[in-house]
Design a protein that fits this description.
The protein is mostly helical and 371 residues long. Helices cover 64% and strands 1% of the residues. About 1% of the residues have low confidence.
Length: 371
């Protein structure tokens, strides 16, 4: 909205031409989201405390976490409001990619809100059943896949897969009917796996003060860079990326996500005044997965969010090992709890995981020219 208003005045105020540039609007969106979160944070914490919306701690977790019971949760609302409102203010709302990312984030946030509400109303650490939550996430992700399929029919989305380290290998994800009509199902299923996987792994990472927020900031920052270069003709050509003019506008969305998550981290840093809750972790994971799909970096996403992948794998391996052999690989899953139980204190785990996230994200960016 501000983009349209301020840029329209450039005929009368020439310096307002700056509002046409993605880089300037990305910085503006990030700062706007940051200020929204910092200003609303104290008010939201007080409201959540007033309504006794506190975190329920799992009884089988580390004993040190029991003191956190009752800390206000659903702080992800700060991130959701900051990201979406800032995108509306500074983004080009004629860009369909912006609306796909916006809608995906909002829908996953609604699922997370419902899960948090179930936990609070039942006063236990488990909200919606895993099957129900997974079904809701899958329906949203499949709907995104079908929407992108129809965008592809109009030449607005590339259904080929970008494979890291393989410039000339770009397999087609859409099946083609003998009459020439593409079928949406294979593409939609692949997209659903990417987005649901991203949403759930971020959710699993959200277990320590500041852990998920810091890792999201790193991953979203890397995606901000990727969105920009994917929408820039010269950079995309030089790096052998799928060039897409629509992807550039997602830079504003990612910048807003970085700013909003940073403001949340201000209140979530140890000792946390507020927790993210599923409304934050599911929406952030869904947003990260959706952006990766839109800019055709689905296979690079596991590297961008390497910590999230490790957290998810630790849970999968733990479950498989226990069910098949009756033994556990880790002292506790997700992985951050394992390191707590071997003697690392919470701040050590969080900061070391942040460093690992940064290394993963930096390495993912260095692979762009290695094709």
């Amino acid at each position: 909205m501000l983009y349209y208003l301020l840029y329209s005045l450039h005929h009368f105020i020439p310096p307002f031409r700056v509002f046409q540039y993605v880089t300037f609007r990305t910085a503006a969106a990030g700062l706007t989201a940051l200020m929204i979160g910092l200003l609303l944070g104290p008010w939201l914490i007080r409201r959540l405390q007033k309504f006794q919306i506190g975190q329920q701690i799992r009884v089988d977790g580390p004993s040190s976490h029991q003191s956190k019971a009752g800390t206000p949760t659903m702080g992800g609302l700060l991130i959701l409001v900051g990201t979406l409102l800032s995108t509306l203010l500074w983004g080009n709302l004629a860009n369909l990619y912006v609306w796909v990312a916006f809608t995906a984030t909002l829908c996953f946030g609604i699922v997370g809100f419902a899960d948090d509400y179930a936990k609070i109303s039942r006063k236990r650490s488990l909200g919606m059943t895993a099957r129900t939550k997974l079904l809701c996430q899958s329906l949203i992700a499949v709907a995104i896949g079908i929407a992108l399929h129809y965008l592809a029919l109009h030449g607005l989305y590339n259904t080929r897969l970008s494979v890291p380290f393989a410039k000339n290998f770009t397999p087609e994800l859409a099946l083609w009917h003998p009459l020439g009509l593409p079928l949406a199902l294979p593409l939609a299923l692949f997209i659903a796996i990417v987005i649901v996987g991203a949403s759930n792994t971020v959710n699993l990472t959200d277990g320590l003060d500041g852990l998920a927020a810091g890792c999201v900031i790193v991953a979203a920052s890397a995606l901000t860079v990727l969105c920009y270069v994917s929408g820039h003709a010269r950079f995309a050509e030089y790096l052998d990326l799928f060039k897409n003019n629509y992807a550039a506008e997602l830079t504003i969305f990612c910048g807003a996500m970085v700013g909003a998550t940073t403001s949340f981290l201000w209140y979530n840093a140890h000792p946390a005044q507020i927790f993210m809750g599923d409304v934050g972790s599911l929406s952030l994971g869904g947003a990260i997965g959706t952006v990766a799909v839109l800019i055709k970096q689905e296979l690079l996403l596991p590297m961008i969010g390497g910590v999230f992948v490790l957290e998810g794998l630790s849970v999968i391996l733990q479950v498989i090992s226990f069910k098949t052999t009756g033994k556990r690989i880790f002292r506790m899953a997700p992985l951050h709890h394992h390191f707590e139980l071997i003697g690392w204190n919470e701040s050590q785990v969080v900061i070391r995981f942040w460093i690992t996230a940064f290394i993963f994200a930096l390495f993912s960016l260095t692979t762009l020219k290695l094709r």
